[in-house]
Specification:
By secondary structure, this protein is of the alpha/beta class. The chain is built from 16 helices and 18 strands. The chain has helices spanning 3-7, 26-42, 57-60, 79-88, 104-112, 127-135, 150-163, 177-184, 186-190, 204-210, 219-235, 254-265, 348-351, 366-382, 388-391, 402-423; strands spanning 16-22, 64-72, 97-100, 116-119, 139-143, 167-170, 193-203, 239-247, 283-290, 295-304, 313-320, 324-328, 335-338, 342-345, 352-355, 361-364, 431-433, 441-443. The strands form 4 sheets. Strands 12-11-7-10-9-8-17-18 form an 8-stranded mixed sheet. Strands 3-2-1-4-5-6 form a 6-stranded parallel sheet, sandwiched between helices. A two-stranded antiparallel ribbon has the order 13-14. Helix 6 (127-135) runs parallel beside helix 7 (150-163), helix 8 (177-184) crosses helix 11 (219-235) and helix 11 crosses helix 16. The radius of gyration is 22 Å and the shape is globular. The termini are far apart.
Length: 448
């Protein structure tokens, strides 16, 4: 269907994109849900400037976004029903269904046949619903990371190509205007890049309260994927070797340390949601060597104290032979001090809110941008008739994440081997090779 036909179409006859969501956790509440409200009220055309695609606004202006279902795991919590009630506060005539079950997406796919499935499940539970959605002929927008192993990413990419469907990953740091401006012109301004240093630290609450599944992932997989995507996407580098070490000092002994943290805060330890040991990494430090000799140093944790001034601590620094660039969230210039809350830095460029007269709320910022990119790709494929191959570079695709996932998998394996060697008094001798078309090859002392 061409742009000319869309532009002359009666709004009631306009094409629509039927969207279902599985998962209703933190990021749904912060970004996905409110973004969907905005898309349902005004389409995605208003958000295209955030991804540099405003020239396509006339072609998609009349495409309606329709929410058909929200699926979550347990009916005992009533999460899906509560979220739909929240939607109906602004969209009273919403007819979407609340659905539940261990494989709730299968019921959604078979009964409601959505055009797009948004996967907002825990890190380790992305692959199965993505593959089932592709087999059902659905396009997919999934939360990051795409998955945790090379075997999984290869299955997803192959299925997407076989079914000719979009698999988009919500990697919003690619659209951060500060980062995008620096990284898109980094080689032009700084010359050959010697090193990139990237930090992203999540609050302690994430690993000890928000995510019951922290033991199934790690802080590098959870947020390091953002910086990996930025570096790979903008600098066009290919990882060839990985070294990693990590720490398990706080969370693995949370049954003891939460008591001391409670004492320091002057609160009852029983108020902590989780009080047993949490067997995952506090932090991971990953060094990646790229095909051109560039080094990437990635430092991630999810134990940042609640008293830290920002929601997260994130920064990226690029060192070239003619110059350097540095973006730090806390240096963007927005600080406020509020009684009872202290001094905090805010980042409205991620997920700012506009409160309109009458209570209408709208979200803006790069947190919404990658959702726009994924849905736009699905619209262009389904409604404008473009091919999956022609869309590949226009959004964070599954194929673009293969090297990201390989680094994530390698880092976890290498860090674990190095911790075991360190505890045995043998240093940290393990690293990994990433052959161009292969998986992950561990290099241990026995191989040397």
């Amino acid at each position: 269907m061409g742009f000319g036909i869309l532009s002359r179409m009666n709004p009631h006859e306009a094409p629509h994109l039927r969207v279902a969501v599985i998962g209703g956790g933190m990021f749904f509440e912060d970004v996905i849900g409110q973004s969907l409200k905005d898309f349902m009220r005004g389409g995605i055309a208003p958000g295209l400037s955030s991804i540099g695609m405003s020239h396509l606004a006339p072609a998609v202006a009349q495409v309606r976004i329709e929410l058909v279902a929200i699926g979550t795991h347990s009916p005992a919590t009533g999460t899906a029903d509560k979220l739909l009630e929240w939607f109906r506060q602004d969209i009273p005539d919403l007819s979407a269904k609340a659905m539940y079950g261990e494989t709730v997406w299968r019921d959604i796919l078979s009964q409601l046949k959505p055009d797009v499935l948004i996967v907002a499940t825990p890190d380790h539970l992305h692959t199965e619903p993505i593959l089932d959605a592709l087999d059902a002929g659905c396009d997919v927008v999934t939360e990051k990371p795409l998955c945790l192993t090379t075997a999984e990413v290869d299955r997803i990419v192959a299925a997407g190509r076989r079914r000719q469907r979009v698999v988009a990953v919500d990697l919003h740091k690619r659209y951060d205007p500060f980062v995008r401006d620096m990284m898109s012109r980094a080689r032009q301004k700084y010359g050959s890049i010697n090193r990139v240093r990237a930090v992203l630290e999540e609050p302690l609450e994430v690993s000890t309260s928000t995510f019951a599944w922290a033991e199934k992932s790690n802080p590098f997989a959870y947020v390091g994927c953002h910086w990996l995507d930025v570096v790979h996407h903008y600098l066009h580098v290919r990882p060839v070797a990985v070294f990693a070490t990590g720490q398990k000092n706080l969370l693995a002994h949370w049954d003891e340390h939460h008591v001391e943290i409670a004492r320091r805060k002057g609160i009852d330890p029983a108020t902590f949601k989780r009080r047993h040991a949490i067997h995952t990494w506090d932090s991971l430090d990953v060094a990646v060597t790229y095909h051109d000799g560039m080094r990437g140093d990635y430092n991630n944790n999810w134990i940042n104290p609640a008293e830290f001034e920002g929601a997260v601590n994130q920064e990226i620094e690029v060192y070239g032979i003619y110059g350097r660039g540095f973006v730090d969230q806390q240096d963007r210039g927005y600080r406020e001090t509020v009684t009872g809350d202290g001094t905090r830095t805010r980042n409205p460029t991620f997920g700012g809110r506009i409160h309109h007269p009458g209570g209408h709320l709208e979200i803006f910022g790069y947190g919404k941008a990658s959702l726009v990119a994924g849905l736009l790709a699905a619209i262009r494929r389904r409604i404008l008739g473009e091919t999956v191959e022609s869309l590949e570079e226009t959004y964070p695709s599954a194929a673009s994440q293969r090297d990201v996932v390989r680094v994530i998998e390698a880092a976890g394996l290498v860090a674990q081997h190095n911790m075991e060697a360190f505890l045995a008094g043998k240093g940290t001798p393990c690293s990994a090779l990433l052959p161009e078309h292969g998986g992950v090859e561990l290099i241990t002392p026995a191989d040397r």
